[in-house]
Write a structure and sequence with these properties.
Layout: H1 2-8, H2 12-19, H3 27-40, H4 46-53, E1 58-63, H5 69-84, E2 88-93, H6 102-110, E3 116-120, E4 138-142, E5 151-155, H7 157-170, E6 177-180, H8 186-201, E7 210-211, H9 216-226, E8 234-237, H10 240-252, E9 262-267, E10 280-283, H11 286-302, E11 311-314, E12 317-319
Parallel strand pairs: 1-2, 1-3, 3-4, 4-5, 5-11, 6-7, 6-8, 8-9, 9-10
Antiparallel strand pairs: 10-12
Helix pairs in contact: 1-3, 5-11, 7-8, 9-10
Length: 329
């Protein structure tokens, strides 16, 4: 640091202030010091900075699967929001064979230079209802599940399903068949429950669930099966991959969409992949969830005394195309 001060013609204190991101240095001086740092190959010691400030300006993200569409878009939202505030992001995976609990995840994160943790909770962990974050470590869950000790945020999975189910029923369909995601998926669980409850509120008993695995192939098999179910006119698939597979399965069985059977999916992620897409879908704003999740954690880190658990659900938006037939007309 003394070499930088000597080269830049400033005091060591000025170099320290620039290194620590202080606003008390004039812009021209800061730019000159930064140029010298770059020329001399200086890298700030973030551990020392953390000791001085009491935080690292970094958060951790824990997740089960980084390549799943929703997770990837949520992570993109987190990293963009973090970059806006000069935060770094450390990612850890909850892989198979590892102990899967919030306590284990946070314990791993405590050994890393992070100030808080965002857990993208695709599957229920055994201690979600009992875990209490340690002092000095803010923990937020991306899930529709509720917590009394941690803030949560998610797309409104339940509300998405009530919207889709009512949309079908309002257009004259007597019932709605559901193709789920994997049984262990929390998103699929809340979507399934929303579908069941929406039908019940209209006096309709839910037909048997067709279990899928988020893939187009599982949707295709569901379409083949439902094509032979008498009076099946409406199918709600838990994501767009399954919904597109359902449409192909129905076509293979000689059924037309929407003339014979109507189909709606969730996520609206195929619009840039499938030309002339006809699938009606619920657009989920994963990026907004990620951005909001980061801001909630950052706010709690900056002002821990005002932090208290909150729950936010971001509603989806129905994108109408041409895969639903209105039977009332």
């Amino acid at each position: 640091m003394q070499d930088i001060a000597r080269e830049a013609g400033v005091s060591s204190k000025t170099v320290s202030r620039v290194s620590n991101g202080s606003d008390s240095v004039r812009p021209a001086t800061r730019d000159m010091v930064l140029a010298v740092m770059d020329r001399l190959g200086y890298r700030p010691n973030f551990a020392a900075r953390a000791l001085k400030r009491g935080r690292f300006k970094a958060i951790g993200v824990a997740m089960f699967d980084i390549v799943a569409t929703g997770n990837l878009l949520t992570l993109e939202g987190i990293t963009k929001a973090a970059s806006d505030l000069d935060y770094a992001v450390t990612i850890t995976m909850m892989g198979k064979g590892q102990q899967r609990s919030l306590a284990a995840v946070v314990e791993r994160m405590k050994n890393l230079p992070v100030d808080g943790v965002i857990v993208i909770l695709e599957q229920m962990l055994p201690d979600v209802g009992t875990f209490v974050p340690p002092a000095g470590m803010e923990v937020l869950l991306v899930t529709s599940a509720q917590s009394t000790t941690m803030s949560t945020i998610d797309e409104d999975q339940y509300g998405c399903s009530t919207m889709v189910t009512n949309y079908f029923l309002d257009r004259g369909h007597r019932t709605v068949h559901f193709v789920s995601g994997p049984e262990e998926s929390l998103d699929s669980h809340f979507r399934e429950q929303g579908w069941i409850d929406a039908l019940a509120r209209r006096g309709v008993v839910a037909p048997p669930v067709i279990r899928g695995d988020w893939s187009a192939d599982s949707g295709f098999n569901a379409g083949l099966e439902l094509a032979h179910v008498k009076d099946c006119t409406a199918i709600y698939a838990a994501n767009d991959n399954e919904a597109y597979g359902v449409m192909q399965g129905l076509a293979a069985a000689g059924k037309r969409v929407p003339d014979d059977v109507s189909v709606i999916g969730v996520d609206d992620v195929l619009r840039n992949l499938i030309p002339r897409l006809t699938l009606t879908s619920v657009k989920m704003n994963f990026g907004a969830v990620g951005r909001r999740a980061f801001r909630m954690v950052a706010r709690a880190i900056e002002d821990p005394q005002r932090s208290r658990p909150t729950r936010e659900l971001i509603p989806g938006v129905l994108v109408e195309r041409s895969s639903v037939r209105d039977l009332t007309r």
